[in-house]
Amino acid sequence: MTGNAVISGSWRAKIKNKAQLCVYEFATASGLRSKKNKPFIFYFSFSLQTTVETQSVRLSAQMKKWGERLTKVEQLAQSFRSNPLTARYKPRLWPCQPSSVWNLYPRQSMAIAFAQRCKEAVHVFALEKENSLPGQRIYLVTSYSELWHYYRTYTHSLMHCYEVIPEGTVCKLYFDLEFYKPANKGADGKVMVSRLIRYVCDKLMEIYGITSTTCNVLNLDSSTEEKFSRHLIFNLKNAVFKDNIHVGRFIHAILQPILSTLKGGRSHNSGVNSSEISRAPDISGGKPAKTSESCGNPPTKRHKQEERDLGFLLVKNKDGQDCLFVDLGVYTKNRNFRLYKSSKAGKRTVFAVAEDNTFHAKPEKSRSAEESVFLASLVCNVSFTGQRILTWEVPETTEAKASRPRCQHGSDTNHELYSGGGSSPHQEVDDFVLTLVQKDGIQGSIRRWNYFAAEQLLVYDIVKYRWCENVQRFHKSNNIMIIADLKEEVWYQKCHDPECRNFRSSSYPLPQEICMSYIMAKDEEDQAYLMDEAGNIEPSQTANAAHLGEDSADAWGDSQDDLKYAEILGDFEQNSGEIPDLLQPASNLEFDI
């Protein structure tokens, strides 16, 4: 076709490639002409070719710009991944609630360590599983609201649940009461509970000036045909105890008349169960801080009267020995206290509101009546605002000084800085607070501290340093407080001075090296136990892998050395106050409350 076509000179100049030449030849051979006697197809082809070339140039420019924008977006995405603006999203029960935290640990110490470093308002709970070894527990860290949400749903896996009362945590006054019914057929449990509540209320007024009645006491019942069992939780108005050790001292002191009867063997019943009263330290010489001295050493006549009045607290155990209606062994550090609506493993009787209960929790719009009772039953559910801290001090004896927690500074001078009660659970924060009050030639000190676990606040009462940010000078007589907010990682100052009572200073950041920051996006592999959607608690895959690794390692080890190591470890944990979960089955009696 190319050889037969005759192309004029004017059109030859316009033909730029072989494609156009082929089209021209085809149009000429076919006789296709336009109105101006020009090859029609060539005209169309030429115009189309020009349009395509133009669009191609434009598209190329747009693709180049798009590529540049895509590169910038990828760079920004990489930057945001490396330096996120906010923490990753976590599910919530509802928008007004904090992010979900539900971590399970095989050891209590691990759970407490996580809770202390967690920024969310979380707490530690102990769980028992059916058919597990005696004394073996799993420890859950979560918030009150989230626990209650699942507490109603997973009744099988959460039905044996205990509140862990952390060492040094501000808490409510509480009692564990029980007696064996077959050995005490004439005992009326309800009357005994009522008399005890009235007696304790009288003592609270006498010693601390606090007004209380049975309406302030949540009365929970877990009695069976064989055993009478109650929990009493005092929800006092704006008053709580420094910790459960001080609660134990107070109770031990007000029950001293009947304890003397047991110790001296003066009871008209034969056989005294001395082990029942040896579980709590003898602090009969103790006294409340800043109260009348007569409270610590009552007159002999009054002592005898109280001894007669408290006779109803004497009951018999299964062996026919005399013991107390009040369990004095529940005031130790990190105590596990059974929850409302929970039962012991292997049992079905839960703690429910007693028939003779007169306490009514304050209703709130967002809470059901049952949830309000649950929150009122929690011993450590205490707010910092407006609370009066009750204490019962131990006399300065050689034994008391030896048992007092000390600061790890290695000097007697520094020990005096903590004369109000030793170091707190966060000694690095104690040391920082001391740097705030020991400057400009003034040697301030910490008189005492109080820890509010529910809000993760450490409140320090300061002496010898009275600088107030409100008045911009030192107070003449009134002391100040330093509050460390471990959750927000800030500290601020408040005053005991009446003029500054409602003043709160600006918040200042805690030093980075002492902050309790914890990575909330904790990998599930780090947890020994996980809970599935059905509420079943099972060992995680990592825990199983670790277990297999231990089995394979046993073949290389010496079994005699392993047994010796376990024995030494058990002795160490007993001496340090940590009760092994698996090596101490007998300790189940201490935990099952």
Helices and strands in order, then pairings?
Blueprint: H1 9-12, H2 18-30, H3 40-82, E1 103-105, H4 108-117, E2 123-127, E3 138-142, H5 144-151, E4 161-165, E5 173-180, H6 189-208, E6 217-221, E7 227-234, E8 239-241, H7 244-254, H8 256-264, H9 274-278, E9 287-288, H10 300-309, E10 314-316, E11 322-324, E12 335-338, E13 352-353, H11 369-377, E14 388-390, E15 392-393, H12 398-403, H13 412-416, H14 427-437, E16 438-439, E17 442-443, E18 445-452, E19 457-463, E20 467-468, E21 473-474, E22 480-485, E23 490-495, E24 508-509, E25 529-531, E26 537-539, H15 541-554, H16 559-575, H17 588-591
Parallel strand pairs: 8-14
Antiparallel strand pairs: 1-3, 2-3, 2-4, 4-12, 5-7, 6-7, 6-13, 9-15, 10-11, 16-17, 18-19, 19-22, 20-21, 22-23, 23-24, 25-26
Describe the overall structure.
The chain is an alpha+beta fold and 593 residues long. Among the domains are: 1-85, no CATH class; 170-331 and 348-377, no CATH class; 395-514, no CATH class. The chain is built from 17 helices and 26 strands. The strands form 9 sheets. It has a 5-stranded antiparallel sheet with strand order 1-3-2-4-12. Strands 18-19-22-23-24 form a 5-stranded antiparallel sheet, covered by helices on one side. A 4-stranded antiparallel sheet has the order 5-7-6-13, with helices on both faces. Strand 20 (467-468) and strand 21 form a beta hairpin. Helix 2 packs antiparallel against helix 3 (40-82) and helix 8 (256-264) packs across helix 10. The termini are far apart. It catalyses: DNA(n) + a 2'-deoxyribonucleoside 5'-triphosphate = DNA(n+1) + diphosphate; ssDNA + n NTP = ssDNA/pppN(pN)n-1 hybrid + (n-1) diphosphate. Residues 267-277 have a biased composition (Polar residues). One of its GO terms (cellular component) is DNA-directed RNA polymerase complex. It holds the Pfam family Herpes_UL52.
